[in-house]
Structures are given as C-alpha cells and as structure tokens.
Amino acid sequence: MNWYLKRTLQALLTIYAVVSFTFVMIRQLPGGPQDYIRARLIQQKGGSLTTQEMEQLNALVESYVNIQPDKPLWQQYIDYVVAVFQGDLGRSIWHQEAVASVIAERLPWTIFLMAMAITLTFTLGITLGALMAYAEGTKFDVAFSSLSTFLTSVPYYVVAILLVYILGYQMQLFPIGGRMTPGTVPGLNYAFFAGVLVHAALPIASMVVTGIGGRALGMRGNSVRVMGEDYIRVAQLRGLRSRRIALHYVARNALLPLYTSLMISIGFMFGGAVILEKVFNYRGAGLLLFQSIKTRDYTLMMGCFLVITVAVVIGIYIADLTYGKLDPRLESGERHESF
After folding, report:
1. In whole angstroms, what is the distance from residue 72 CA to residue 172 CA?
2. Which of 53, 63, 64, 156 is the 20 to 30 A CA-CA neighbour of 220?
C-alpha cells in the first residue's frame, strides 16, 4: 500500500477511534454528562416529570450531547458520529453556546503558543547539541551538558511560576496574565502583534527553557555517534568540505531520531497547555478545558478532549509525512514505520 495512503488511513482511523471513545464515555461514565444534564433539568422542574416533560427533557439532552436517549444504541452512535464529523460537538452547559464556537475562539491561541514553543525548543536545542558534539570534551561541552541535564530535570510549571514571580511581579517586565494588551484591536496592526508576543513570551519561555536541554543532549549524542561512522571517515578521506559533511552527513542522520521525539512532544505539549495556561491565565484551549472540569461542563470537556486529540493527530500526521523528506527510504518503501 502507498506509504502516504497508509498514513492517511491511520490518521483517519485514530480520529474515528477517539470519536467512538467519547461516545462510550458519554454513555458509560458514572454521573456522566447525560446523567448530569438529566438530573440538573429534573431538579429545575421540581423533581417529578410528566410524559410530555420527559420528551422535552430528552430533546434538551439531545441538544447538549448529540444523543437522543430514546433511540436504539446503534442509532445513537451513528447520529453522534455523523454530528461530530459535521462539526456539531453539542452545546456548552456553562457558556450556553455551541461547543464548537467556544473552542474555535480559544484553539488558535493554544496552537500559536505550542507552535512557537516547539519551534524554538527544537531549533535552539539542535543547534546547541551540534555545537556540543563538535566541541566534545571541551569546557563548553561539559558546562552545557551539565546545564542541559539540570534543565531537563526541572518541570516546566516550576519554571513558569518562577518566571511569573520574578519577571512578572517583581521586575514587572512582562504581563502576568491575558493573551493581548487590553484596548488593542485584533488585526494586522503592530500594537496587536506586539501585545500578543509580549503576553506569550513567558509561557513560551517556560516550555523552551525546560525542553531545550533534552533536545540538546539528544542531538549531541546522535551527532557523536554519527561522526564515528565509517562513511564519515570515507567522506573526509575523499576530501569533502567540512561544511558539507556536517550538514549533509552528520546533521541529517543525527536529526532522524529527534524528529521522532518531535512527533511525541506535540502531544505532550498540548497536554501540558492545561497547566501552563492556568498558571499564566492565558485564555486558550487548555484553560478552557480546566474551566470546563471545574464547572462540570461535560459537553465542553468532551469537546476540548476531542479537539485537542484531533489537533495532535493532525500535527503528528503532518510531521510524519514530512519525515520522508529527511529519510527517503520511507518513501521508497524500505522501511515501514517511522516511529
């Protein structure tokens, strides 16, 4: 089977499995969203309901969770899956709006935050790791290896709290919350972009500072291993330029294992956005998920879970497709798995 087609089918199958899993959670969780909404509405009606009120109640439950309780299970499942793939994630109990609309307003901010953090972490980590490998055994290598090991062991939320306290409260160099400067008009103007970058600086720095060490150590170890390979010595004996050997032979092969960790880190960072956005009061999808748990807004919680999972699957899918550009053997079919 064509490699791209195989990856596409795997991504679609994963998304379908996540949608099916959310359907099971809605029905089977003790005190789940269906039961919670039903109990809440019965309480509002005074405890006893007529047959007509019960039909109205089922209609309300359906509008919130996309499941009509009086239909057969298989029909409920089909209706739910069709509604989700049409973009209908139900209605938020707390916001009294469509879940898709609430999430759509927040998700771009989280994607921006995580994309910047991932890009900076890997760019700086790979560069530092390559420099450490070429300076193996020197004071520079020892110093930054020790620093990288220390930074890797520090949780990102600890750095986040320290940055808020020192740079936000004490020195007042950065805002301690929000996602843009109050009063600015969103659009293509300098004030808006400057405000967005300043408000995102500390959350991004928290992820970069704690993530750069692991990437640097990984790149250093891979580069040192690759530089000891026979084909590197052959390239040197053939008189190839050091720059060409470094970029085309060493860096390219050393990057392959790190590209796998990049795919995995996409999911990790999206999961970490919940705590990070809470610390900085950054109104993204992570903070929205935290608030939905706090207010027991089950439909919004399920929607956030579903959207974040799909975003991670799409991110990994895109990264997986581009993996073949680094390792052409994948596209030619010599290997069947990239990770």
Report:
1. 59
2. 156
Give dist(CA 296, CA 40) in Å, integer. Answer: 12
Q: How far is Cα 306 from Cα 308, in angstroms, rounded to an integer? A: 6
Listed in sequence order, the residues at least 6 apart from 299 whose beta carbon sits closer than 8 Å to its beta carbon are 33, 64, 65, 89, 90, 91, 92, 93, 99
Cβ atoms of 183 and 117 within 8 Å: the answer is no
Backbone CA torsion sign across 213, 216, 221, 224: negative
Whose tokens are 């692991």? That residue is 214
Give the gyration radius of the chain's Cα atoms. Answer: 25
Which pTM value belongs to this model?
0.78
pLDDT, tens digit only, all 339 positions of the chain: 677 788 888 888 988 888 888 888 766 666 666 666 667 666 766 666 667 766 766 776 666 666 666 677 788 788 888 888 888 888 887 788 888 898 888 888 988 888 899 889 989 998 999 899 888 888 998 999 999 889 888 888 899 999 999 998 898 888 888 888 888 888 888 888 888 999 999 999 999 998 898 889 988 888 888 888 888 888 888 888 888 888 888 887 888 777 767 766 776 677 778 888 888 888 888 888 888 888 877 788 888 888 878 877 887 787 777 776 666 665 555 444 443
SS (H, E, C) 254-311: HHHHHHHHHHHHHHHHHHHHHHHHHHCCCCCHHHHHHHHHHCCCHHHHHHHHHHHHHH
214 contacts: CB under 8 Å, gap ≥ 6 = 125, 148, 152, 261
| Distance in angstroms (rounded) separating the CA atoms of residues 206 and 197 | 14
Q: What is the DSSP letter of 246?
A: I
Q: Report which of 166, 168, 122 is spatially closest to residue 282, judged by C-alpha positions.
A: 168
DSSP 8-state secondary structure symbol assigned to residue 327: -
**Residue 85 corresponds to which amino acid?**
F
Tallying the residues shown for the chain, one arrives at 339
* Tokens 């990790």, located at residue: 268
- C-alpha 220: how far from chain center: 26
Token duo for residue 82: 């069709």
